[in-house]
User: Fold CoA-binding domain-containing protein from Rubripirellula obstinata.
Amino acid sequence: MNEIESFLAAKTYAVAGASARTHKYGYKVFKALLAADRETYPLNPVTEEIDGHKAYPKIADLPVVPESLSIITPPEVTRQVVADAIAAGVKHIWMQPGAEDGEASASAREAGINVIDDGSCVLVLLARN
Assistant:
């Protein structure tokens, strides 16, 4: 199984940067994972709810540790999200285009996490499955 297949084989997901604004990429990724019948939690420190789903400020606040984490945040935010993911025990991280941060990627890989940070997009992959 390659990195992307491993990410998509997870049972639980979180989307850092999930948004209640329907035109935003964070909203589209969150909704696409839900539409693909994946247990998905939105992470957003300033939004309480996204389409009827409780939003959580950070990974430590989630009711479960997600196996896979999709990140749609600015790179400077990505660093903290990845540090939180490492501390929580997340197994797979996918930095969506624009969220990539070299320092965060290196830290996650050193922690043994499967990292996707090559510019590929989860929406494209979900559309194929």
